[in-house]
Amino acid sequence: MSTKILYYGIAITVLSCIVSCTSRGGSRRDNKAEYAPEINQVEVVALEKTDFSRQLVSNGKLSAAGRASLYFTTSGVIAKIAVENGARVQKGALLGKIEDREVVLNLESATLSLKKAELELFDFLAKLGYKAGDTLSMEKSVLDMAKMRSGYSETKNSYERARIALDGASVVAPFAGKIADLKAKRFDKTNSDAFCTIIDDSSFDVDFTVMESEYSFLAKGLTVKVLPFADLTRTIEGKITSINPSVDSKGQIMVRARIPNDGTLIDGMNVKVMVERTIPGQLVVPKSAVVVRDYMDVLFTYTDDGKAHWIYVNILNSNSTSHAVAANETRGAVLNEGDRVIVSGNLNLADGSSVVLK
């Protein structure tokens, strides 16, 4: 029994020596974590007051500035169709015509009746002592009475109706443009539907809506930029022509602008609309300069000792690339012209972080 105890004591002593030697060896360096502070590379810009281009963005739809639905005002059978959909026509061009022999005859009869009524009018005036054809020297009341007694007024009325009926037997272009919505065919009978539509696509109106809170931002004559959704790389500039002074049930206001056609726009096209207005004397920074900390907007400035200084800011206005900012004075923040604002490498910064300039 005593021999076993002796062996156990010797083994424990040897094991203790091994552990002691190992702890005094090179393993101490491996067990100690070495700390290397993180250095962030950043880019900065000098803060200065400049003009800020405030933007308002909305969606709209194009409609031709000139558009008219054209009708036959005289009933009949269509005898001629002189155009097709998509055709470009000049003002006064004949577009369609009905069979008009009857209305032509009616006008000829009305013309003969009118000439006969004129002779009867002159005879009646001669009986009153006036020279034939001299209607300028007599009183208007006398002339009106003579026209009625001779039947001239009624005949002249019939002649005008016959002339209007002949005019209504044809459809002509009221202005230059493109033909659309032509569905009628030759030998069809006219009805209440429009014969066709003519579109003046030399310019377009774009209708879009803005929120009630943005009403003061708008003004007639303000420049707009229109980008067709079919190709957002193209921009066409125009001017606001009208602002509806009424708010709809959705809290929106209708605005209309006029833009020229660059040759690629068509009626009904959907577009993106941007309205820009310059606000002078603003502290402007790239959008990348502003980050969120503690659920608030902040930016970082670079100090001479290589530190990032955290500043709370208020965003006054924004556009597609920049913010107009001001110091959040309720948080004790101060922002001055000339401050070097960090615009990149700021996503992981904290107040007092060490930084180096790229």
Description:
This protein is α+β, with helices and mostly antiparallel strands. Helix content is 23%, strand content 39%. The chain is built from 5 helices and 18 strands. Strand 9 and strand 10 form a beta hairpin. It is elongated. It starts with a helix and ends with a strand.
Q: How is the secondary structure organized here?
A:
Layout lengths: L1 H22 L3 H5 L8 E7 L2 E22 L7 E4 L6 E2 L4 E5 L2 H27 L12 H11 L1 H16 L2 E3 L4 E4 L15 E16 L11 E6 L7 E8 L8 E9 L9 E17 L4 E3 L2 E7 L5 E11 L3 E6 L12 E5 L10 E3 L1
Parallel strand pairs: 1-18
Antiparallel strand pairs: 1-17, 2-8, 2-12, 3-5, 4-7, 5-6, 7-8, 8-11, 9-10, 9-12, 10-11, 12-16, 13-14, 14-15, 15-16
The fraction of residues in strands falls at: 35-45%
Based on CA atoms alone, the radius of gyration comes out at 44 Å
**Number of helical stretches of at least 4 residues:** 5
Q: What spatial order of strands do you see in the largest sheet?
A: 2-8-11-10-9-12
Give the ordered list of helices and strands.
HHEEEEEHHHEEEEEEEEEEEEE
Number of strands: 18
Mean of all residue-level pLDDT scores: 87
Major sheet characteristics? 6 strands, antiparallel, barrel
- Model regions low in confidence, pLDDT < 50 over at least 5 residues: 1-12, 21-36
**Overall 3D geometry?**
elongated
- How far is the N terminus from the C terminus? 77 Å
Label the structural class.
alpha+beta
Q: What proportion of the residues is helical, as a percent range?
A: 10-25%
